[in-house]
Structures are given as structure tokens and as C-alpha cells.
Amino acid sequence: MNQHATTTTIRHSACPHDCPSTCALDVEVIDGRRIGRIHGAKDNAYTAGVICAKVARYSERIHHPDRLLKPLVRAGAKGDGNWKEASWEAALDLVAERLLRAEEKDGSEAVWPYYYAGTMGLVQRDSIERLRHAKKYSGFFGSICTNLAWTGYVMGTGRLTGPDPREMAKSDCVVIWGTNAVATQVNVMTHAIRARKERGAKIVVVDIYDNATMKQADLGLIVKPGTDGALGCAVMHVLFRDGMADWAYLEKYTDDPHGLEAHLRTRTPQWASAITGLSVEEIEGFAHLIGKTPRTFFRLGYGFARQRNGSVNMHAVASIAAVTGCWQYEGGGAFHNNGAIYQIDKRLLEGASLKDPKIRHLDQSQIGRVLTGDAEALRHGPPVTALFIQNTNPVNVAPEQRLVTRGFLRDDLFSCVHEQFMTDTAKVADVVLPATMFMEHDDIYRGGGHQYLMVGPKLVDPPEGPRSNLFVIEELAKRLGVADQPGFGLSEREHVDIMVAQHGYGTFETLERDRWLDLQPEFDTAHFLDGFGHPDGKYRFKPEWNGGFAPNKPPASVGLLGDHAMLPEFPDHVDMIEVADAEHPFRLATSPSRNFLNSTFTETPTSLKKEGRPELLLHPLDAEALGIADGGRIEVGNTRGELVLHAKLFDGVKRGVVIAEGIWPNSAHERGEGINVLTGADAAAPYGGAAFHDNRVWVRAV
User: Fold this and answer.
1) pLDDT tens-digit map of 531-566
2) Exposure class string for 98-107: b at 16+ Cβ within 10 A, else e
3) Any alpha helices (H) in 79-146, and if so which ranges?
4) Which residue in 33, 149, 560, 577 has its CB near the most CB atoms, within 10 A?
């Protein structure tokens, strides 16, 4: 008998990472304790057997030799890398002691629990809110990712839903706008390519550079960053001008189509050409393709909304679908996110009954300003002197990185980071706690890019040392004197049972048995044929920018944000962006890379090998004018800072535009600072959000 024989079984899970696909996974479990290859579930109609390569090789991550395994306490100066190991009991005692000390000195708002989407599992991600509310710690306004896009979409539709994303396969034209789907949500391509193979559908990609998705397109349109709204307006101008607007649909389902038509008379292809960098012929051809193809499906991403005018851009582009009336048809309409279809009861999980409306909210995107004492960012309240961090890496991923780093290095700031690897944020912490990964604990997931409620059960035991987010929250609650408050003392599975019970979704056990639950609404609801989400049931060409509903609207204590007085009455192009000037002649976007996901996977060997090194994509003619050679060291900077990258000459971008792909660790850059040294944290109108792709910079040879 072979004593070394292994047994491989297939178990089932869901991808926890911050990607709209939330893929259904078939996981190879070796000898009941190790993870092998991961596959997309073929019997899930959205995942359809396809997942991204970085998750397929997740064994590199979960079994990585550099994974954190022991609690660590800082033993030297902040950031110098000297640590001593501690027991879990001692480490948690120290964290609780320092949180209590901060509270005693400056009040409960001096403590700021800070988290985000390192896991999209509802229990592991959101339990921190229960601790926050129980202790009256500073509130968390999670602005960094979705606000600009969600606000723009919902200002038109009134509801964060849309057509079944699987309908892309039934479309005659799929427009992938502002998302590099090959890199960030591969299943979009699965369904779009199926439509092309089975129906002869055209795939159109609108983006700011010739990326991997555009290479799959029948028609690729490269626009200048922040000008998508101008393209949307010119397309609608042509639709009205050439008799391709569906007036029966417009009169029934929209608020002011005649006002829109009049407004757009001056938004000609010539006008948009000067703004976007597209030719008049490209704009006219695109408009006619849409106008002559009723089954056009607009798959709208987050990327083109990450500008200071991002909400305006999103609203303008979604409005095209209302002008053509393509929402009437299977395989037609505009889709961004399905968040509103999931009726999950998170009140007990998040401790809603414990919430004090008088507690201030601090803007996640402005953590650098908060930690360096900016009075406005602090809402004119006490300083933050203690941070407890889960599921995010702000020293690397947050804007205004120099302020963030300076804040973390304050002698009077205590920070505890619960993490899987020694990230840039963990490196400057006082206490680092090792965290489990998604196959080592139970949780539940919902997909923004599809319609499945999905379960991720524990498949293997973690190594000796790491503990789940829920474990840490529960242990801190005991030490902080709030463990008797509602919601504490429950397991992951008990929380899930409570969250799904109210709407008859079953239990953790039934979800685990069935693997997922399809919550796709009926056709008429999904396509807004029984009315849009506004009280009058109309799509709004005239948004209520200064007070209308949005899914992540800031609390009243925060109010309107950004230059909201500039927001237009109708869809338009608004120069709220960082327009290039003589001192900063280039526009920089920090686009996603294929093998990283924000700062996740930057530790895995294959991802690192495939990405190579931090580079700046630069048009060859711009490089020639600056005396920059391919592969040469260049410095890029603005008023926020500067850093060194290597030039990659690339003619798939407009002149005057530069692209830095991926969020590399700060340490991957030669000066130890990352790309977010260059990005700004000023809140975008009307409800906040980080404009990561909206930066004016200078570039020069080193």
C-alpha cells in the first residue's frame, strides 16, 4: 500500500474578494487539510465554469510561507520591522487596554474602527460595526469605492438593480463601458463572447486605454479620462437627431425627454470630439450601432466613475439606454450593480439597535487628513488616537499616501491591524494579529455583478495561529465590557440564519446544501417595465443631485460633499476634474492590473512574476518629446508628491494620458512610496468618493 497516496475531494465555496463576479467555486481539498487547484463552478449560470487565474491558483496564497501566523507586538520604532511574538490572550489584552486608554483620554470617538472589502463575506466584514456601535466609537463613512458610480446610476434609475447580467449572452450588442472586465470581472467576457459566437453580437469597449478587454472588442473607443459624459451626450444627440430615439418609451418611462432633446442640441459629435479625443466618425458610428440595435446591453463599470465628475458620467451613460428604450428587450438595458435585490437583515449583525446618531462619521477616503489632525476631516471633534483595522490596507491603497503614512507614524496613535500578510499598514502598526482566509471560516456572500446569494463554508482548518474576524470582535467585546449587548455571542452560522430568515432564504445549512440561491427578479421588475425606483416611476434625466436617494448617501451630519453646485440639470460634461495645465501636462489614471486585486495577490509568486515591476504606460510621442526611452527610469509627480517608475511606451493611450496599472506594495517602488502618493482625497460631488483615476501630473526622465 502506498503510504504517500493523497485523497482529493471537491468542496464548494464562493470567492470573497472585492470583484462584482463573486464567483461560485469548486475547490480541490487534498487530504482534508490543504487546498489544491480552484475551478469555476460549471453549473452556476453566471460563473459558468470560468474564474480568474489569480483565484484559480489560490493555493499559492493560503499556503504562502510568509503568511502571518503569530500575534506580533511592536518592539522598536514604528515601521522599523522589530517585533516580538505574543500569545493571543496577551495581544488582545493589550489592544483592549489601549482602546480603553484612548477612550478615557479623549472620549469614545477617539477610537476609529476602520475596515473595508478585503473580504466581502457579510459576517467577517461587517461584525466590526456591532463593536463600533456598542462602544460609541467614531462612525465609518465607507466612501472609497462605490459612491460615485452608485450615485450616478441610481440618480437615473432610482434603484440599484438592472437586467439579469446573464442576458448579455442574449444581446446583439454588448457595450462594456469603463471596466477592464478581463482583469476585474472575467465572467462579463464569458457572456459577451457567447453572444458574439451564438448571435453574431458586436462587442464595444469604451475605456481610456487599449487594455485586455478592448483587445477582445469589435469596436474599441479610447476616450480621455473624465470625458465619458461628453461621449454619452453626443451619442444621445445623434439618436434624437437621426430619429433613433424611442419616443413611445420616452413619453411613458422618463421625466423630461423633450427638455433633454433641447439640451442636447448643442452637444454634437464635433463638440464631444474636442473633449473626448475621439473622431466625429467614431462617435457617429457608435451612436448608429446602438440606435439600430434594440438589444444593446450596457455593462457599466466602476472605472469611468472614479473621476471628480464620475457621478455625472455614470448618469449620462445610463441615460443612453432610456433614450433608445433598450430596457424593453431581453438582452437589452443598462446594468451596473444588483445590490438592491438582496434583502439581507443585518440589523443584529451590525448592532443597529446600539447606534447613536450623535456619533460623528469620518470619511474612509480621508484617513490621511483625519490622522494628521485636519479639523474638517475630524468633523471638528477629538483626534483619532486609536485605530482597529480589518480587511483593508490604507497605507497602500488610500489616497494622499504621504499624509496617511505620516499619520500612522504619530507617536500618540495606537493601531492594531488584523491581517493575513505583513502589508504596508501592518508594518507601521503597534499590534498585528494573524487572520484566517475565506476557506478557513464560514460566511455568506452576495454578488453585485449577478443575482446569487452564495455561501462559503469552512473547508479546511487554518494553520495554528490565525483567527477569524468574528473571533477577534467577540474577544475584544468581552474585554471592553460590551459582550452582553445584542448580537454578541453568536457563531457565523447563527448570524447567517438570522440574516436570511426574514425573507425566506433558508438557513446556512440549506444554502450550503444548495450552494447558492438565485434571487433574480421578474423580467418586468429587472427591466424597470413596472416603473423605475423613483416615486413617479420615471427614469430621471433631471437628477435630484442635492438630496436625492443613493445607496451609500453620507449621513446628515456629513451632508453634501464636493463642488455640488456645478452638477448639471441634464446629462452633460462638467470640468470638475483635475484638468491638465502647464505645470502638470499629463492626466494619470491608476487602473487595475490583471494579476493583483487592489493590494491582494501582490504577495503571490505567479502574480508578481506576471506583473513584472511598477511601470507607467506612456505614449511614444510623449516619451520622445521628453527624451524618455522604453524601460527608462522616470519621475512622475504633482503637488502631493512624486515617485520613480519605469516607462513602458504604449500607443494604445491618448497623448497626454498616462496609466499606472495595479496597486503595487509601497516597498516595490525604489523610494518606498506607492502610486497613491499622487492621488487626492478631496470628496467628489455630491455624496463623496475617491477619484483615483483623476490626477494631473508632470513626467520627466530621471
Assistant:
1) 999 999 999 999 999 999 999 999 988 999 999 999
2) bbbebbeebe
3) 88-106, 122-135
4) 149
